[in-house]
């Protein structure tokens, strides 16, 4: 199975240890979303080759000092640490970590903002698994091979949110939307658009706990498809993930699959706009 066809992992238990089918290639993005435990002392995300740790990403919360350690462990011997004295992931808060593999470095982004670049000490092509451990809760681990001209997502997620992306939609494409319902808010809407219509529209209704999916073509809405979702809570973060396969979209809300929606607009390469609107405050978006 090719890496970009691999389904994401939702709400996996920690410690998490999975092979990476096909290994790492230049341009692949590893996405890890979760929540740091309130009393966490540390957690780590490791890209592995056998027992070697090719990339060690290790936020620490010890002795009143909060920082992140980056390192490599080869044949049981650690290299020199590269530390950044900043905490991108405060305790008890949700986070989104992205690792973009480039020819020279791993470009690490946290909550949509560039955080660190780590130069390769071992070939990234050797990586064959990912391990995550420590005091952290996971909501999503995903792998994506993006289209050319990938650009890191902006750090500002104002609503209504609109983002043009290159390369269209392809099998393995993942969209991640994280945020909170505003006080008294009731609805969030997500649209994947092309020049003349909306290929996929997803509406999450708070009061009714319903997700409705539809398409807008030739100036009119088609027949919608509704499904129930587990109880949503305004005081808790919400994560909507849309995963595109060859013939349908899979919709997950807080890790629960709510819908499988067959492609009605099949020219996926022409879809190039992501929009998010409604009664929400966004904390992270991956187009």
Sum up the structure in keywords.
single chain; 287 residues; mainly beta; Jelly Rolls; 2 domains; seven-stranded antiparallel sheet; globular; Galectin; lectin; repeat; carbohydrate binding; Galectin_CRD
- Judged by helices, strands and strand pairing, the structural class is mainly beta
Q: Residue ranges: pLDDT <50 for 5 or more in a row? A: 147-154
Radius of gyration: 19 Å
Task: Please state the average pLDDT score.
Answer: 89
Question: How many runs of DSSP E, i.e. beta strands?
Answer: 25
Beta-strand fraction estimate: over 45%
**What is the count of distinct domains?**
2
CATH topology tier name of the largest domain: Jelly Rolls
Would you identify the CATH architecture of the largest domain? Sandwich
Shape: globular
Biggest sheet overview: 7 strands, antiparallel
Order of helices and strands: EEEEEEEEEEEEEEEEEEEEEEEEE
- Total number of helices: 0
Helix content: under 10%
CATH class of the largest domain: Mainly Beta
Give the end-to-end Cα distance, rounded to a whole number of Å.
Answer: 23 Å
């Amino acid at each position: 199975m090719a890496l970009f066809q691999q389904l994401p992992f939702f709400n996996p238990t920690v410690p998490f240890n999975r092979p990476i089918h096909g290994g790492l290639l230049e341009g692949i993005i590893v996405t890890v979303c979760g929540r740091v435990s309130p009393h966490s002392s540390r957690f780590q995300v490791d890209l592995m080759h056998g027992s070697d740790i090719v990339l060690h990403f290790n936020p620490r919360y010890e002795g009143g000092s909060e920082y992140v350690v980056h390192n490599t462990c080869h044949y049981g011997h650690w290299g020199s640490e590269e530390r950044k004295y900043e905490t991108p992931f405060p305790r008890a808060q949700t986070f989104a970590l992205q690792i973009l593999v480039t020819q020279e470095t791993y470009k690490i982004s946290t909550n949509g903002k560039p955080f660190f670049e780590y130069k390769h000490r071992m070939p990234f092509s050797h990586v064959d698994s990912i391990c995550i451990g420590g005091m952290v809760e996971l909501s999503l681990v995903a792998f994506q091979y993006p289209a050319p001209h990938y650009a890191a997502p902006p750090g500002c997620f104002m609503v209504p949110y609109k983002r043009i992306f290159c390369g269209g939609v392809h099998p393995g494409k993942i969209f991640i939307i994280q945020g909170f319902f505003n006080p008294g808010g009731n609805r969030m809407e997500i649209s994947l658009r092309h020049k003349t219509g909306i290929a996929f529209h997803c509406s999450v209704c708070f009061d009714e706990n319903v997700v409705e999916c539809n398409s807008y073509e030739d100036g009119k809405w088609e027949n919608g498809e509704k499904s129930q979702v587990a109880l949503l809570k305004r005081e808790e973060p919400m994560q909507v993930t849309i995963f595109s396969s060859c013939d349908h979209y899979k919709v997950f809300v807080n890790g629960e699959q709510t819908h499988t929606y067959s492609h009605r607009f099949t020219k996926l390469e022409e879809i190039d706009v992501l929009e998010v609107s409604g009664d929400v405050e966004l904390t992270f978006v991956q187009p």
